[in-house]
Design brief:
This protein is mostly helical and about 250 residues long. About 50% of the residues lie in helices and about 10% in strands. It has 2 domains: about 120 residues, no CATH class; about 120 residues, Alpha-Beta Complex (Outer Surface Protein A, domain 3).
Length: about 250
């Protein structure tokens, strides 16, 4: 049975109060009970955000962290009914409101993305994987890439340093976020330009290790074949390349 317009209006008023803490009289609702309801809702949101962003919480400190969460809760509409997806909104809010610049923490946006992407990768539906077997001749076999990965470009190395240590380290950093096919754990790995090129080449079709190595070396302007081969073996060891196509 669809809600009446009046009921919908009352629900919206209660939801608005939970967000901005500005109470408007709602017929049939006790203001003290509404206050307790608002406290429970806000604490649930705050707890979810603290669990999603523990490093950002530590970086901001209690006062600034609480202010940030309250601003987000009051001003940013949730885009998903699923609680686990809600914390992404904090990252989006920081980007849109330029909160990092306002707080004098230019690395904050990268930090939020770094923490959120781990959750997103862990919850990602399993991808279809081509049949594969262990590599025995990496340069002459067609290589199968782990499909559950994402390359994130960051301006600050938030995966290696914290707080004030980051301020003089602005640059271009490539971080691989991937989920292990064997353990389902999420891992991070800083990528060289060569490794980024390898992932781009393999993400659509299995290619031989030799073809991948030659194309990636040409892309980065290098002739270090020994280093490139070692890098391919490391990608296999880390389960980023799963193995050879089982043809």
């Amino acid at each position: 049975m669809p809600l009446s317009e009046e009921t919908r209006k009352f629900q919206t008023s209660l939801a608005d109060y939970c967000r901005d803490n500005s109470y408007r009289e709602i017929p049939g609702v006790n203001s003290e009970r509404a206050k307790q309801y608002r406290r429970l809702v806000f604490n649930g949101v705050k707890s979810a955000l603290n669990n999603a962003y523990p490093i950002a919480k530590e970086t901001l400190g209690k006062e600034r962290g609480s202010e940030f969460v309250q601003e987000f809760f009051a001003r940013y509409p949730s885009s998903s009914p699923q609680l686990w997806k809600m914390p992404r909104g904090l990252y989006e809010f920081a980007v849109e409101s330029k909160y990092a610049e306002m707080m004098g923490l230019p690395y904050l946006t990268d930090l939020l993305l770094f923490e959120w992407i781990e959750i997103e990768m862990f919850m990602r539906p399993d991808s279809e994987i081509a049949p594969y077997r262990p590599c025995t001749d990496i340069l002459n076999e067609h290589l199968v890439l782990n499909p559950d990965f994402q390359v994130v470009q960051l301006s600050y190395p938030v995966f290696k340093f914290k707080g004030a240590e980051l301020l003089d380290k602005r640059g271009n950093y490539y971080l691989l976020v991937y989920r292990s096919a064997s353990t389902q754990k999420v891992w991070f790995s800083e990528l060289s330009p060569f490794a980024v090129a390898v992932l781009e080449l393999l993400k659509d079709d299995p290619l031989t290790g030799q073809d991948v190595m030659d194309a990636a070396l040409a892309f980065v302007g290098s002739s270090d074949e020994a280093g490139a081969k070692a890098a391919l073996h490391q990608l296999v060891s880390d389960e980023i390349i799963l193995g050879a196509l089982d043809e």
